[in-house]
Design a protein that fits this description.
single chain, alpha+beta, Porin, six-stranded mixed beta sheet, five-stranded antiparallel beta sheet, 26% helix, glycoprotein
Length: 236
């Protein structure tokens, strides 16, 4: 029983650590004051290289709304500053949105650029990298007006410098994003990327199973405790 409980505790700790890696960000418009850009994701970073493997790279922890640059961010742009990288420096990440109108007046939004600026340990600018061809990645980020986009499965985005001779790569997972018409406390119903549909079903099932087992353990412990109490009274 003790080993089982310790295993459950270890699993619960792992889930807690995973939640700490999920950065949550919000931008408000000023007139009227209301949310107009909401995003959350787990991010991993790696400098260039011929091959990119994020298996052994840990996600960046501790990102939250304090990292949002409220001066440069708006309903079409989310800029996150002071993100630590693997070399001890930091970087800023900006996500730019494009709104376009389709037939019959249906508005669509799409991520048209992700922009990266790196800094060394002294805060010196190391250059800017970007990807302005987001439609070419495996999970294009887009949705209708008033709809969010959700992709639990991770995907990589290569960001290149102006001369196209150097790049950095970020991995985004558990991504949900929604610009402009944003609910007050949550996201609107999402478009789910193909890569994320299976994971979207599995994660709630795992969490539900863990909670069910914990309830069972508490119930069994309570019954055993009641029996021991009755035996003690009988002996007295």
């Amino acid at each position: 029983m003790r080993t089982f409980v310790l295993s459950l505790f270890t699993l619960a700790t792992a889930i807690s650590d995973a939640e700490k890696s999920l950065g949550k960000f919000l931008v408000n418009r000023t007139d009227p004051v209301e949310p107009c850009f909401r995003a959350e994701f787990v991010i991993k970073f790696r400098n260039g290289g011929d091959t990119v493997d994020f298996t052994d790279i840990k996600p960046i922890l501790g990102l939250n709304n304090d990292n949002v640059n409220n001066i440069t961010s708006n309903c079409d742009r989310l800029q996150i500053d002071n993100i630590p990288n693997e070399s001890g420096g930091s970087f800023s990440l900006a996500i730019d949105i494009n709104i376009r109108e389709e037939a019959e007046g249906a508005d669509w939004w799409e991520v048209n650029e992700i922009n990266y600026t790196g800094y060394d340990t002294e805060g010196n600018d190391l250059g800017t990298f970007k990807n302005d061809s987001m439609q070419r990645i495996s999970a294009p980020l887009a949705g209708t007006w008033g709809q969010s986009f959700l992709c639990n499965a991770g995907f990589d985005v290569e960001l290149w410098n102006e001369d196209q001779d150097k790049f950095v790569t970020i991995n985004l997972a558990r991504l949900q994003i929604q610009p402009h018409k944003v609910p007050e406390d949550t996201f609107a119903n999402p478009v789910i990327c193909e890569e994320g549909k299976n994971i979207n079903i599995v994660i709630p099932a795992i969490v539900g199973s863990i909670l069910g087992v914990l309830v069972l353990v508490v119930l069994v412990t309570y019954i055993i405790g009641r029996k021991r109490t009755r035996i003690a009274y009988q002996e007295i």
